[in-house]
Amino acid sequence: MKILWLTPSDMLCEAYHGSLTYLGHKPVMHWYDKHGSPPDQRILDAVDRESPDLVLYIGQAGGAHCASPDTFRRIRDKVPIALLCLDAYDIGWDKLLTEYREKACFTFTVACDGGCHNPANVDWIGFHPVDPRPYAKQKPVLERPILLGTCGVFAGPRKVVFDRLVRNCGMVVKPREEVYGSYQRYANFLMQCQIVFDCALSAGGDDGRGPYARTLKTRAVEVGLAGACLLELEGCALGNWAKQDLHWASYASAEDAEEMVRNLLEDDTGILRDNALSLQRVVRQKMSPEIFWSRTFEACGVA
After folding, report:
1. 3-130+288-299: which CATH architecture?
2. In whole angstroms, what is the distance from residue 82 CA to residue 19 CA?
C-alpha cells in the first residue's frame, strides 16, 4: 500500500511518523510547510504525482500553510484521506472542523487528543500514535536519577502548577528542541525520570483565553512508554483508557500537585512504581500504533 503523508516538519510529528514506519510502512512524506504559501497546488500536485492508495494529513487550525477545505474535498474525490487532528478539543479548531464535516472533506477524522467540543465533527475519539522504539532501553523507575521532570513550556492556567513544582519540588525541565530528529533525546530524558509532570488542558483557542478542555496529551502516552510515573490533571481524557489514581497520579490544583509529589517520593509501599508499570501496560495494550493504524486503515477502506 502506498501512503502519502501531508505533514508539517515540526519535531512534534516525529513520533507520529515513526509509529507508522514501526509497522513496516514507508510513507512518502510531503512537508507542506516547506514550499511556501498557499500550499494547495503543490499538495494537489503531490497527490497526482504519487498516486497513493491513502493520504494522511496532520492538520493545522489556520495560518499560511493551511490548505483550503476545497483542496481536501478534491483529494477525497480521488483517494481516501484521513485527518489526524492533534488538538480537536481546542476551541480554536471548532469552526474549521465544522466546515470540513459540512463539505465532506475527509474519509476519516480522528480526534487524537481524546475529545472534541462537537463530537459530530469527528469519526473517532482516539489517541496520539507514538513510536515505541525510542523507549526500548530503560532502567527500573526507582533507579532513575531525576525524581521529577518535564519538558517544554507550560502557559496559561498550566503555568501556575509548573512554577510551583519548579520552585518547591526542584522539578527538572528539559527545554523543547525544535529540530526534527531530536526525538530520541526527548525519550531519553523521560526514561531518566521517576515522575513526569503534565497538565492536560487545551490551549484555549487562538488567544489562549479559553474555554479550556481536559484533553489527552501525547506526553501521557510517551510517559507510559518510558515507564515513568505520570503526574496528571484529574478528570483528563486519559480516563477514556486508564483509571485515575491507579494508572496515573492525579492533582486538582498546584497545591495538590506538590503534595502528591512529596507523597509519592516519601511512600515506601511502591505506589510510584506500581503506577508507572500499570500505565505502561495500558499504553502498550490499549494505545498502541497497531490499534491506531488498523482502525484508521479499516475506516478508509484500505485494511
Report:
1. 3-Layer(aba) Sandwich (3.40)
2. 16
